[in-house]
Amino acid sequence: MALLEVTQITKRFGGLSAVRQLDFSVEPGAIVSVIGPNGAGKTTFFNCIAGFYRPEEGQIVFDGTTIKGLRRDQIAHLGISRTYQNIRLFANMTALENIMVGEHHRLHGSWLGAVLNTAKVRAEEAANADEARRLLEFVGLKGKGDILADKLPYGAQRRLEIGRALANQPKLLLLDEPTAGMNPAETAQMTNFIRSLRDELGITILLIEHQMRVVMGISERITVLDYGEKIAEGTAREIQTNAKVIEAYLGSGGAAEVPDLPEDRRPETSPSVS
Amino acid sequence: MTASAAAQTPSATDWRSVVRIGLLGGLVALYLCLVGIVEVFQPRALVTNIITLGETSMVLAAVAPVFLILRGKQIEPRRAVAIGAVVGSITGAFPAALVIISASINLRAMFLHASPVTTDVLTFGLGVAGVWVPIIGLAAVGALTGLLLTARADIQRPVTDALLALLLIGLFAGVLRPPLLASTVTAGIGRLLLADNGLTIIGAIVTVLVVVGGRIGIRRFGTRSRLDALSPERKRAVRPVSLIALILLVLWLPHGVGPFFAQVVAVVALYVLMGLGLNITLGLAGLLDLGFVAFFAVGAYTVGLLTSTAEYGIAQWPFWAAVPFAVIIAMMFGAFFGLPILGIRGDYLAIATLGFGEIIRILAGSDLMKGLLGGPRGIINIPKPIEVAPDSLLAGPVQIYYIALVAAVIVALVAIRLRASRIGRAWIAIREDEDVAEALGINLVQTKLLAYMIGAAFAGLGGAIFAGLLGSIFASSVTLFVSINVASLIIIGGMGSIPGVVVGAIFLIGIPELFREFSEYRFLFYGVALIAMMRFRPEGLLPSKIIRRDLHAMHEELESNSLDDERSPAGVAG
Fold this sequence. Notes:
heterodimer; A: alpha/beta; 6-stranded mixed sheet; 4-stranded antiparallel sheet; 36% helix; globular; B: mainly alpha; two-stranded antiparallel sheet; 74% helix; disordered N terminus; disordered C terminus
């Protein structure tokens, strides 16, 4: 059975349908990508899954539970974590505290326990901090726990945001353009890191990307959106040769193979395409 | 444009800005005259028979603009004196004009304080014939200020310090005198140095000598640098000693300052307690709650109802049995009020909570609740928390001071513990980014409600102790100003900072209480203080590290942006 099953969802803003009658599913343990030109509805689709938007039509079932209409914290409790296209860390908290916030709902210390500083609360806090340090090390930020989040370098902030999402012990991780703004070396490192999340932690991954090299390299399945609709779905090879996809990215008559686009003509970042 | 002109001829004085700031000083001086500060402050002396507070206000109106112009500039003394004299005379021209106009036209229909008394202060009693006094006098003040600001550091520092010391001691003479007179050993010294409304001439001379001597002594023997040079271990050894000294001072305070000021410090301690409570709601969770007084009222009236032996009392309980109930009921009110409004964000939350405060105040004084709460006549005969003989160490406001102090320590402890817990992290996360916090699994309603309820509980505790202090509770005690005071003292002191709350309470609650006779200017003082804080020190007097960092990072960003703006055209030109 699929871990995430989306059937016929539609999200409208005024008269515009940002996502239209979309069917989508993710198998457990997969790495699945959503791609598409600017304004294709990728982030809107993410926001529908994570409970930031409520789709007008359709159904979203996660791990056997209908999650459409649930609050964001309830969806997080069920095991969906996410990162953001423009990093949204808690800037005035340290790296360690950021991760510890992610662990929030797995802890049980009450406010009264915290005020009385009971043995139980102290033990839980210590375990919580240890766990956070372990996660910090896992995302490659060992020893950086006391640095305020916004003082970290860009790449480290991206990884910290993933670390914070992992603190929730998710079953499904939504990554919104995890390599945005990274140079090729950082991108390669991040690609390997994403793969290790699945291979080592067994987390199912759904990502939005525009760097084709990343997407083609790690995704088992790719879904292409354009104008809020799914125009293609399949393996990397199938997508690369799909005529509709090439047209969506390059306009009709475009012949170049999508994955070989030079960096400076990447569809998402080049304003002339949109 | 002025900047580029200055860049071309760096040594030239920008007389236009000098005149502009002089005019500004003049407007301030005129304002001080018209609102009556000059007149009302006249009976109080800074130094007896030498200078009154009314005159001091005029002097400061001339000193401030000269300071603004010359601050941080390298100017030769002669030019500085000239600038000071020009600014001072422009400043003085405004009150002088007031003297002439109020002699020929009766302004008092509109400006009550454009009176003969004000004219007398401004002209040293000469009337219209003395119209030159404010001009010449303030020109001299301005010139001296210019001279002082360009003087060598080893002259400037002691003189500035001595003048500031005169100002402070003169202002607080009324507070300093009672403890000195209380003991026979120090009474003679007290009478010699302090009159009942300011420093004596001898006191002023002693103050100047002590400060100047101390300054010279520090330079000669390097006391301060020696303290700085102490090894960290030695410093650590000094810390508990100074801590104990501080604790002893805090414990001694209400006994030392006499019965009237004991009441003042008790009220200050009460506000410290409430400031710490609101700091949890506002400082940690970022919820701007302006209805703090609602829970204060609930706490006070609960204690009143449960303990009063008069008309509206329902149980005649002892004070201490009623306090936990007051706290719990305030907390329940917090939940009741909080649930419908916590989905509202930011400014809208402030407006909604403001409404709650008003609802409670109006209900308490209404005919509807009169049968229960006594309406405007309130509930009287609330027993003292601790029944003692009138001459005991714990009599009157002193015991309230200690109770509020203990309660404040408890609140501070609760705040520190919560800050370090999962709840505290969730609050800060909500303050930083509510949406992300929720997506991480934090239940917004529950977590915000908890912050709101804990704030309400401490407001209730404050109200309960307040009822014990007054021995009665009236609708007129639970006004909007309680909320405004608590919110302002946090802003002035520094959001999220415990020492900041203490400093804010002393500054906003304590100091105005000491100047009771000027109480009509209390909110003028608040307004000026808040504007000055927002302009010069938005993080508060003693901010928490994080907020200071935040605001300063923002400033640096703005400055570097403006630098870029300046640089870019040059880059194009080059």
